[in-house]
Amino acid sequence: MALAKGLRPVQVGAVILAVRILSVFLVQTWYVPDEYWQTLEVAHKYAFGYGALTWEWQKGIRSYLYPSVVAVLYSVLKFTGLDYPNVVIILPRILQAIISSIADYKFYKWTGNRKWALFLILTSWFWFYTASRTLLQTLETAFVAIALSVFPFKTGKLGYYEKESSTWLWLACVSVFVRPTSAPLWIVLGIYNMVTTNQGRIELLLKTYLPIAFICGVMLVGLDSYLYGRLIVTPWEFFKYNVLGGVASFYGEHPCFIPHKEFRFVLPLLPILLYLAQDVIVPWSRKAKKWQLYGVTMLMLVGNLLPSLYFGVIHQAGTLAVMPVLRESLTENRSSILFMMPCHSTPLY
Predict the structure, then answer these.
(1) Is residue 342 part of a domain?
(2) d(CA 251, CA 298)
(3) Which Gene Ontology MF annotations are present (predicted)?
(4) How many of the other CB atoms lie within 10 Å of CB of 195?
(5) Which domain holds residue 116?
(6) Of the candidates 135, 98, 114, which has an alpha carbon nearest to the alpha carbon of residue 17?
(7) For the chain, which terminus, N or C, has the lower number of CB atoms within 10 Å?
(8) What is the pLDDT of residue 2?
């Protein structure tokens, strides 16, 4: 695989960043409402003083962590007078593209700098389609990739003597507040860590797990409580309304009784699946003939390029394209518009 042959770490990082920034400007289509209504709309309301909040924010099932970061960007734009519509639209996506780039680089390092891993993460059409979107699942996926790159996996006999990093625990805690549905993944990894640790398990629990959970929890509960104006634990509110209250079932149920399923909800599994994929393709590539390597490479490129262009440029592009037209046509914010579409099918900010 000659894609990354001879590339230094800085060059690899530059290539990754270039691809992610490209997606900011190339992907100009609508995917799901949460990209806007769970992040940008919330941030816009707090930075500029107007905007709409959906029922999730009224019930307190979302953390303000990600929207507050975007709100800081918006506040800087407002203070400097640079809050032009296009800048307000593009800047948060550039921020997310940078975060995703860091995650991609960490994924590359996690695989041992394997060139096929870099190729897979850069050519994945769905990651190209979502990596620069301000979706909570995109941020969650980035956290998963970064956490896995420092997770104390035990590989070989020497692995049991290596120093264990606790960085992944901080990311796990933050991830649960961003998306409580990520908890099962971290629980599985936590159990694995407790079983395979080279430290005492009680010591690991008391000196690492509990202090990190306490510090992270207090900080995030404090942030959410301050912005909501009342004491609130958003992961619990999420669980109470979606699971105990059955709200998730309103959006549909799977025959296996899994409520509110959407394809994007499994996006955080992408780093794991790509890791498994490169772990298969690398040994094969060492034995494959040159024509087979070129054939598979071209098949993967074309197979990912076509959906990247279609979903990024054509599919559901109208819901975004209409907003600048409305913005320029309606000079007063008091104007009323009737959208005869499914709820929240367009951004409002």
Answers:
(1) no
(2) 39
(3) alpha-1,2-mannosyltransferase activity
(4) 9
(5) 9-248+264-332
(6) 98
(7) N
(8) 46
- Amino acid type, 234: T
C-alpha distances (whole Å) from 91 to each of 98, 175, 258, 312 are 11, 22, 36, 18
Give the residue carrying structure tokens 């940008």: 40
- The tally of domains found in the chain comes to 1
Q: What's the chain's length in residues?
A: 349
319 domain residue, yes or no = yes
The answer to whether residues 119 and 1 touch, using CB atoms and an 8 Å cutoff, is: yes
Say how far apart CA 132 and CA 126 lie, in whole Å. Answer: 11
Signed CA dihedral, 104, 105, 110, 111: sign only: positive
Q: Is residue 347 part of a domain?
A: no
CA distance 280 to 226: 48
What's the one-letter identity of residue 117?
A: A
Using CA atoms, how far apart are residues 23 and 17, in angstroms rounded to an integer?
10
What is the residue-wise DSSP string for 49-90?
A: S-----HHHHHT-S-SHHHHHHHHHHHHHHHHT---HHHHHH
Tokens of 59: 């019930």
pLDDT of residue 260: 56
pLDDT of residue 248: 58
Evaluate whether residue 299 is within a structural domain. Answer: yes
- Exposure class string for 153-179: b at 16+ Cβ within 10 A, else e: ebeeeeeeeeebeeebbbbbbbbbbbb
Whose tokens are 């805690």? That residue is: 173
pLDDT mean by block of 10 residues, the chain; 349 residues: 65 95 95 91 92 88 95 95 92 97 96 93 96 95 95 71 84 94 93 89 92 95 95 92 68 57 83 94 90 92 94 90 81 72 76
Largest CA distance in the chain: 69
CB neighbour burial string for 256-283, b if at least 16 within 10 angstroms, e if fewer: eeeeeeeebeebbebbeebbeebeebbe
Category of 278 on φ-ψ map: left (φ > 0), alpha (ψ -120 to 50) or beta? alpha
Two structure tokens written together for 155: 């590989």
Q: Give the bridge partners for 253, in sequence order.
A: 259
* Angle formed by the axes of helices 167-178 and 136-150, nearest 10°: 160
